């Protein structure tokens, strides 16, 4: 058991999410928000955070449901509670995890908007490779689609993170952790072309450790990529609202449409909880690199 205050337990859990799990600041904030809401509820019931039972959690969830919150929010709250009490159990601050018998509510969630294969081809066909800046932009979009990277991860990618020979790149995460992400031959070809013909021309004599560089010779930022993608979409017949994240959704959707393993895609995307990945499809079984090579349209 623990002599720590509830506030300290929550703080330690958030540090664990950051350092050990590598969650984003937004995800950590969401966990903290949901757990503090639960703490407020049990405080009113005069129940200690470490003496919570399954019935107490069920009462909380019933009250939340009666407040007409969405099933998505309710499911997120269950995940937050489950992860928190699993952490306390693993840290031996509890003998029993009160969430063990709590089921995650069914969530009716549509797959996030994504581009079809034809739309992907149309978009890439509209970006010219004989212009150094368009070649750079096409390379960014190709890599987002080929790897499922978040736009922030692509913008922060460094030259040392690329392994063109083995078709992989290394993504740094919080807490000194990293994940290895494979990419396809198509992405390799355009990456090599960009590095040789575009990046060197943009930089001239300047030096930059980042893969994707701006006109000023520094790394290109997320807002610029977002703006550029919108400009290229206007060249196409695509009517959907498209953001850099749409390419990430397209990556996951196209893999899973071709029977890729859900847990493999979870790891490729860098999702901590598989429920985040479950919005895309059902499970199958294959190794990460086999999944990418066998199923991705540009593998």
H and E string:
HHHHHHHEEEHHHHHH
CATH superfamily of the largest domain: Intergrase catalytic core
How far the N terminus sits from the C terminus, by CA atoms, comes to: 50 Å
CATH topology of the largest domain: hpI Integrase, Chain A
Number of contiguous helices: 13
| CA-based shape | elongated
Name the helicity range: 40-55%
> Which percent band covers the strand fraction?
under 5%
State the low-pLDDT regions, or none. Answer: 276-288
Counting DSSP E segments of at least 2 residues, the number of strands comes to: 3
> What is the number of independent domains?
2
- CA gyration radius, whole angstroms: 22 Å
* CATH architecture annotation name of the largest domain: Orthogonal Bundle
- What about the largest sheet? 3 strands, antiparallel
Key terms:
299 residues, mainly alpha, DNA polymerase, domain 1, hpI Integrase, Chain A, 2 domains, 4% strand, elongated
Please give a structural write-up.
The protein has two domains: 6-90, Tyrosine recombinase, N-terminal domain (DNA polymerase, domain 1); 117-295, hpI Integrase, Chain A. The chain has 13 helices and three strands, in the order αααααααβββαααααα. It has helices at 6-19, 25-44, 54-66, 71-90, 117-125, 132-147, 151-155, 185-203, 222-233, 244-257, 262-269, 274-277, 288-295, and strands spanning 162-163, 168-172, 178-182. A hairpin with a 4-residue loop joins strand 1 (162-163) and strand 2. The longest helix has 20 residues, at 25-44. The termini are far apart.
């Amino acid at each position: 058991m623990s002599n720590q205050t509830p506030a300290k337990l929550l703080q330690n859990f958030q540090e664990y999410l950051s350092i050990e799990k590598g969650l984003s600041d937004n995800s950590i904030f969401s966990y903290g928000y949901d757990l503090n809401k639960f703490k407020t509820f049990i405080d009113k019931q005069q129940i200690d955070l470490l003496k919570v039972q399954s019935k107490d959690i069920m009462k909380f969830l019933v009250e939340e449901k009666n407040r007409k919150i969405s099933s998505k929010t309710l499911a997120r709250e269950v995940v937050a509670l489950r992860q928190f009490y699993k952490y306390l159990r693993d840290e031996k601050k509890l003998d029993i995890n009160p969430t063990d018998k709590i089921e995650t509510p069914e969530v009716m969630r549509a797959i996030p908007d994504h581009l079809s294969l034809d739309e992907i081809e149309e978009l890439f066909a509209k970006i010219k490779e004989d212009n150094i800046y368009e070649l750079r932009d096409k390379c960014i979009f190709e890599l987002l689609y080929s790897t499922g990277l978040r736009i922030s991860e692509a913008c922060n990618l460094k030259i040392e993170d690329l392994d063109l020979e083995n078709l992989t790149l290394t993504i740094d995460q919080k807490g000194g952790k990293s994940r290895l992400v494979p990419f396809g031959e198509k992405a390799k070809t355009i990456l090599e072309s960009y590095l040789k013909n575009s990046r060197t021309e943009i930089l001239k004599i300047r030096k930059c450790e980042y893969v994707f560089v701006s006109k000023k010779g520094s790394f290109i930022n997320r807002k610029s990529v977002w703006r550029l993608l919108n400009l290229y979409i206007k060249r196409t017949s695509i009517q959907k609202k498209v953001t850099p994240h749409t390419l990430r959704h397209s990556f996951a959707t196209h893999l899973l449409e071709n029977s890729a393993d859900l847990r493999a895609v979870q790891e490729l995307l860098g999702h901590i909880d598989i429920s985040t990945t479950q919005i895309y499809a059902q499970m199958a079984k294959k190794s990460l690199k086999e999944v990418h090579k066998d199923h991705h349209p540009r593998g």
